[in-house]
Amino acid sequence: MKNTFVISCPLDTYSGYGARARDVVKAIIELDKYDVKILSQRWGSLPFGFLEDHKEWTYLKDYILPNSQMTQQPDIWMQITVPNEFQPIGKYNIGCTAAIETTACDVSWIEGCNKMDLNLVSSEHGKTVLTTTAYNKMDDNTKQIVGQIKVGKPVEVLFEGADIEKYKPLSSKEINLDLSYIKENFCYLFVGHWMKGDFGEDRKNVALLVKSFYETFKNKKKVPALILKTSQAGSSYLDRREIMLKINELKNSVNANHFPPVYLLHGDLSDQEMNQLYNHPKVKAMVCLTKGEGFGRPLLEFSLSNKPIVTTNWSGHLDFLNKEFTTLINGEIKQIHPSAVVKNMLIPESGWFSPNHNEIHYYYIDVFEKYKKYQELAKRQGYQSRTNFTYN
Asked: pTM value?
């Protein structure tokens, strides 16, 4: 009789955690060592329905517990979520998390990790933050420091591998994704959510990415385009309208007569469509000015197209991006802005990365003008990703 393995996770959601959950669940099922059951959970305000919309994943619905009810204590219990939600339900308990994008985690995360027998994180960055963050423990009566609160349970790195059956180089004949409405033949691509925060303070740094693109190529005759595959929380018309308003506001803040084109690609794409986007001949490079990543899955997936990547020199994606083969923008760690703070998650006393603006402008131009140089290096990054960071 197999041990029961119950996994609580948001595998049916359109989210990064949903993608992580599906891969972990699939891997555990394929081991064929356990009686696997799933408790399907929500992920913020992001929509459900991923399994039904993607037929290759529909089989996972057979493992979901009816009415989200367990009839007995599982032998192994895993939660794929943020650590402050960890609860020790099983005889053996595993917490699986992308961890944190900043320099420190909330005390509730430490307490959550200490409830589990094992904690799995996506990157060395996440492991470092969880294992080095500490808070003073105070005596309730004397108000004196009597020790420290820090993670005392094991923390190990289980990276998020890419599926090289889905993400791989394609010939132009294999691509039917229609980008004919884009006139330019050289496009930078950004993929990620546009999150909360004032200008230059949203975690993915989309506002700075867009404005610096406008500033770099304003009033020039020969310019690339920028494609934003982004949304705030979903794929609604209202969400798209809000994104367009943000882009126009940034454009209006730049003093120029002529602007480089910025295109919004909004809505859900399948893995196959995303791979076609990455490989489309008009898409020449990925750019991401992220302030911090727990891992950075789109960067890994895009690297398999053998095209150049321009991103920041800090946090989770440095596990798989080789500094010799990719363009890593330098900068400094700055305290998180109040507008980006999220209670119990992105805490005010933590910091994250602020990229050097001069380097942003320089590499926007240099990759555009000397593309072949970067393209050759990108092929080596693609080989490294396929060799060391796959799903298998």
From this structure: 0.93
